[in-house]
């Protein structure tokens, strides 16, 4: 993404504020923003990264969820979906994997769209709990699905790099709609098999 194309109205990011804020942060930790390589850091790299890492807060960035007629009403499970987000409390990354399942009603979506949708929802300042719920409810609405289940397992750098300085996994789960006990068992089995 080129900085030339970034504006408040087009991309949802104020490039000049991002530059000024980054420059001030560099000064706050005792670095000279005019020295190489820091000049590129605040002028270009951080604003470009922020535009990408917050693209999930912009509707125009949402992937097109083209659907086709459902050939089954059985549960569709996609596991091992890479997940990267930014903690809104510490502005540090957290990442891991998502498992997404849905029971179609009349329409289905290509499997790659599930990955793209998870990526879009996660590219914002949020918490793991919020984004798990957002993916589940958002996918149910997008697909008019009978039920959607989402589990995310992630490592938070705000824990690993600061705070308790320990790396561990945090799992969150959200269910939107009426998932049967059988479907929930299948979902649990898919997650267990992925971690074996």
Please report the number of helical segments.
7
Q: Biggest β-sheet: count, sense, barrel? A: 5 strands, mixed
- For the biggest β-sheet, the strand order reads 5-2-3-6-7
Strand content: 25-35%
What is the domain tally? 2
What Rg is obtained from the alpha carbons, in whole angstroms?
A: 19 Å
CATH topology of the largest domain: GTP Cyclohydrolase I, domain 2
| Number of strand elements | 7
**Terminal Cα span:** 38 Å
**Uncertain spans, ≥5 residues at pLDDT below 50?**
6-10
* Class from secondary-structure proportions: alpha+beta
The ordered H/E elements are HHHEEEEHEHEHEH
Helical content class:
40-55%
Per CATH, the superfamily of the largest domain is GTP cyclohydrolase I, C-terminal domain/NADPH-dependent 7-cyano-7-deazaguanine reductase, N-terminal domain
Could you say what the CATH architecture of the largest domain is? 2-Layer Sandwich
What number is the mean pLDDT?
92
Shape: elongated
Name the CATH class of the largest domain.
Answer: Alpha Beta
Annotate the secondary structure layout:
Elements: H1 8-11, H2 15-28, H3 38-53, E1 67-69, E2 76-87, E3 93-103, E4 107-109, H4 111-122, E5 125-126, H5 128-143, E6 147-156, H6 157-160, E7 169-177, H7 181-195
Helix pairs in contact: 2-3, 4-5
Description:
With 196 residues, this protein is an alpha+beta fold. It has two domains: 51 residues, no CATH class; 132 residues, GTP cyclohydrolase I, C-terminal domain/NADPH-dependent 7-cyano-7-deazaguanine reductase, N-terminal domain (GTP Cyclohydrolase I, domain 2), CATH 3.30.1130. It contains seven helices and seven strands. The strands form two sheets. The chain has a five-stranded mixed β-sheet. It has a two-stranded antiparallel sheet with strand order 1-4. The radius of gyration is 19 Å and the shape is elongated. The relative contact order is 0.13. About 3% of the residues have low confidence.
């Amino acid at each position: 993404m080129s900085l030339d194309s970034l504006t408040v109205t087009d991309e949802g990011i104020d490039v000049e504020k991002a530059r000024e804020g980054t420059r001030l942060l560099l000064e706050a930790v005792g670095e000279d923003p005019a020295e190489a390589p820091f000049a590129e850091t605040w002028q270009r790299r951080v604003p470009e990264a922020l535009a990408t890492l917050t693209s999930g807060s912009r509707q125009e960035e949402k992937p097109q969820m083209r659907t086709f007629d459902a050939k089954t009403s059985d549960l569709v499970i996609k596991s091992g979906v890479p997940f990267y987000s930014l903690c809104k409390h510490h502005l540090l990354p957290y990442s891991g994997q998502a498992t997404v399942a849905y029971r179609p009603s009349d329409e289905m979506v290509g499997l790659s769209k599930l990955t793209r949708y998870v990526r879009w929802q996660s590219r914002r300042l949020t918490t793991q709990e919020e984004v798990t719920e957002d993916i589940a409810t958002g996918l149910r609405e997008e697909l008019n699905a009978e039920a959607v289940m989402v589990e995310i397992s992630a490592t938070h750098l705000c824990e690993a790099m600061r705070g308790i300085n320990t790396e561990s996994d945090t799992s969150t789960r959200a269910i939107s709609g009426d998932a049967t006990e059988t479907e929930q068992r299948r979902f649990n089995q898919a997650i267990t098999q992925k971690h074996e």
